Structures are given as C-alpha cells and as structure tokens.
Amino acid sequence: MTNFGNQVQFNVYQTMPSPDPDRLPIVYEEWEELAREVLEDGPYYYVAGGAGGEHTMKANLTAFDRWKIIPRMLRNVEIRDLTIELFGKTYNSPVMMAPIGVQSIIHPEGDLASAKASAALGIPFIASSASSAPMEQIANEMGDAPRWFQLYWNRDPDVTASFLKRAEASGYSAIVVTLDTPMMAWREYDLKNVYLPFLVGEGVGNYLTDPAFCSKLSKSPKEDPTEAIMHWTKTFGNPSLT
Ligand SMILES: Cc1cc2nc3c(=O)[nH]c(=O)nc-3n(C[C@H](O)[C@H](O)[C@H](O)COP(=O)(O)O)c2cc1C
Prior knowledge:
Elements: H1 4-13, H2 28-38, H3 41-48, H4 55-65, E1 84-86, E2 89-91, H5 110-121, E3 125-127, H6 135-142, E4 147-152, H7 157-169, E5 175-178, H8 188-193, H9 205-208, H10 211-214, H11 225-235
Helix pairs in contact: 5-6
Bound molecules: flavin mononucleotide.
C-alpha cells in the first residue's frame, strides 16, 4: 500500500503516448457528468439529490471545503504511517466506505462490486441495512477483509435482532447505528420523478432473505413480492408510509 498513489499515476502515464480512449475519468466532476449521461432521472437524482431545498447538502459541502491539509516541511516523510486503531483493531488509514444502500440502481453488481473494491484496497466496508445484496453475499465477496454493518433499527424487534445475529455470523466486526432516519426525508427530486426504489424491490436484499421478516408474511417474497414490499414499508420505521 506504500506509495499506492504514485503507482496509480505511473500506471496512467505508462499508457503515453496512446492512452485508452475508453478509460475511466480522473476528474470527479467528469464522473458526475458521465453518470448523468448513463442513468435515468430517478436513480441519478436518488444519489445526487438531497432533502428539502438542498441547503443542508450545500452547507455540508462548504463546511467540508474548509478542511485543509497543513504542509509540514523538512520532515522525513519517506515512510508515512496512516494506520489508526479503532475498537482494538488496526486499520490501514482513517478512511472507510460510508454505508450506501440501494446500489443496484446505479450498477447491476451494486454492493458486491464496491465491497470487493474496498477489500482489495484494505478500506473497511460498511454494508448498509438497505443493501441490494444480502449481507452474507457481500461478506462472501470480501474474504477476511474488514467490514462493519450499518443498522436501520427496525420497528419489528425480531428483525433487528435477526439482522444483528446475521451480521455477527458473517464477520461484521462493528455495528453502525443510523439514528437520523426516523421517517422519509422530503426529497423534491424523488417526488418529482415519482421514484422510490424500495417499492420496486431494490435495496431490500437483507429483508427478503431474513427469517424473522419472512416469518411474518403469509407467502414467501418469491411467491408474493408485493406482500413482502408492503410489509417492508410497515416495518422500516417509516410512519409516513404506513
Ligand atoms: C445514495 C445514498 C444512499 C445512502 N444510503 C445509506 C444507508 O443505506 N444507510 C446509511 O446509514 N446512510 C446512507 N447514506 C448516507 C451516507 O452514508 C453518508 O452519511 C452521507 O452520504 C454523507 O456523506 P457525503 O457527504 O460524503 O455524501 C446514503 C447516501 C446516499 C447518497
């Protein structure tokens, strides 16, 4: 992992003077432009959009921009140690993959691909309760690589307990409890586009495979997906949908 940034750069420069015309973008804004070209309005704005008038989202970006790197001159930086210790474990760097649910709306491989990429880079992956693939399948892609599980506390305590047991059994070493989603946010773009991915069975991989969740249904999710999704809307802790 030492000098990984240099390695990436040399890999790019080595393609001089005839770079692959289909190579992936480098510039962050170009990724956004490309996503806009490829994705329909619904999925694109589900990711790009924020709540309300998006003032908080913009304020967060401004606040983040205020963070600066302080240069320290005339120090030996040949060998740098970015490792951190958290909960008795050492990690390569203080960077983790935030939990991002419903990833299948932007790419068919969804969480499985991003979990694999995190494992390859040694960056701890936080799997979302709302992942597209079930947590066990994500864990399978990662081998022994570090992973945590993000919990959306379910209205049904049996489901919450079952999620925690499954996470422990499949090697997630910490729980990240999300507390800021007691109800749906007022998301103008999603309302305008009439787009809520869960209602078409995206981002419910953990629920539809959960024994506690399925035990409350009259038929299996395969036999009656509509009943399963309706039950999900009632138990996700989402008063506005019930
Ligand atoms: C498309 C999308 C899906 C997300 N899904 C989840 C989720 O399932 N669980 C969760 O706790 N946070 C979720 N988040 C919130 C992120 O983990 C993160 O906290 C948030 O995006 C703020 O970080 P940022 O400013 O780098 O985007 C999601 C965010 C986005 C944009």
